[in-house]
Design a protein that fits this description.
- It is built from 14 helices and no strands.
- The chain has 405 residues and is an all-alpha fold.
- It has one domain: Amino acid/polyamine transporter I.
């Protein structure tokens, strides 16, 4: 790609990226308490989704990929409602040591489950980052990708240990701003492409039966995970601000996901059925504009880096809370990173997606059980029934989700 080859659309997308980056990284945004609390869940929620969800949903849902994405987003919103309820009503009981013994035991088990889920998700995020770095260089193979993933994970652990959460937050704010700017350019580029081309609908993978497709869809829960990170930011932000931040993060990410899948649907016809690849989006965006693959690679790297930072920081906050402040957050970062590295060398990227989805579903299931108990104590029968339904769905995801690749 040379400058002389760039079209008007290319320059428009580059300008959009730069302008959006400047706006999102402005002093006013960086000083906003609401934006500060929104950054962490937003970084995690859209860390991997816009990179892998399109080829996954093409195989699962084909022409109704956008509807399938909407279903995942709606499920995530109701899971978020469980977490928000626990922030508002369960957290004060736990902090005051007035929660029932059952709630305290389940909450502790949920914390251990989430720690395990964070390790898996960090491994996935950085594995995907490495794949996107190596693909344009023609160097993407299993061994090289794992070696680069290990080096990047080690760097995150180093920063977390020596600079602590503040060092991670600085990196996170910058990368989230750049990531959102790239997504803005991507959505604009897709809209321009769709306006100038006949709208085509891709076919799903007919070799997969309906039940298996539902299990695969359950295995994509990871792409909308991340909103629970605000549950463990109580030392820095009030419950009200955290609830507002979670809602804003889920709304922004939901609009991005559904809008992206709707706009990218015509390009999914160019993907080979049954051959899901984590870097397929690079190939697809080449149809949009010459500059788009390069912009996307930058965004992919930033997306995965910021998501890995968010979950590493979340794990640190979790250990701080569960240890009653006895174990410092920065001491947990090397441990989280070390376990993530071990996983990277023992599973492929699509297996890691499903493992992470199941681990997060198990955590959300336990949170739903807690919310159900607290709602019962508060005689809120409608809430109790709603949480029972969510617990049932999440238990099914935990037990039956399966890998696409």
């Amino acid at each position: 790609m040379t400058l002389s080859n760039l079209t008007t659309t290319d320059w428009l997308l580059i300008a959009t990226t730069i302008i959006a980056m400047l706006l999102l990284n402005s002093p006013a945004m960086r000083r906003s308490p609401l934006w500060s609390v929104t950054i962490t869940p937003l970084a995690s929620i859209i860390g991997s989704g816009f990179l892998v969800v399109a080829p996954l949903l093409r195989d699962i849902a084909g022409p109704i990929a956008a509807a399938a994405m909407l279903l995942i987003v709606v499920l995530a919103w109701f899971i978020g409602a469980v977490i928000r309820y626990n922030i508002a009503h369960t957290e004060p009981l736990l902090n005051a040591h007035r929660a029932s013994p059952a709630v305290m035991r389940i909450d502790q088990l949920a914390s251990y489950t989430l720690s395990f889920a964070y390790i898996i998700s960090v491994a996935f995020y950085v594995s995907l980052l490495a794949a996107y770095l190596l693909e344009p260089l023609g160097m993407k193979n299993e061994t090289t990708a794992r070696a680069l993933t290990t080096a990047l994970l080690a760097f995150i652990g180093f920063v977390g240990f020596f600079r602590g959460l503040h060092g991670l937050e600085w990196l996170e704010k910058f990368t989230v701003a750049l990531k959102l700017a790239v997504i803005a350019a991507l959505l604009l580029g897709l809209a321009i492409f769709d306006a100038g081309h006949p709208f085509a609908f891709p076919s799903p993978n007919h070799e997969i039966d309906t039940l298996e497709k539902w299990r695969m869809l359950a295995g994509t829960l990871l792409v909308v995970q991340g909103f629970e990170t605000v549950r463990y930011m109580g030392k820095a932000y009030s419950a009200e601000l955290r609830i507002r931040g979670m809602k804003l993060a889920q709304l922004i990410s939901g609009l991005i996901y559904v809008g992206f899948i709707a706009l990218v649907t015509p390009l999914l016809v160019h993907l080979k059925i049954g051959a899901v690849d984590e870097t397929a989006l690079i190939q697809l965006t080449g149809y949009v504009a010459i500059a788009m693959p390069a912009i996307l690679v930058i965004g992919a790297v930033m997306a995965q880096f910021s998501a890995a930072i968010a979950d590493t920081a979340g794990a640190g906050g979790l250990v701080l809370e569960e240890s009653g402040g006895r174990i410092h957050q920065r001491l947990t970062y090397p441990v989280v990173i070390g376990l993530a590295i071990a996983l990277v060398w023992n599973a492929n990227i699509f297996e890691i997606i499903t493992y992470a989805s199941q681990a997060f579903a198990a955590y959300y299931f336990l949170q739903a059980v807690i919310a159900m108990q607290v709602a019962g104590q508060r005689h809120e029968r409608a809430h109790q029934l709603g949480f029972l339904l969510m617990a049932t769905i999440l238990l099914a995801v935990t037990l039956f989700a399966r890998s696409v690749g």
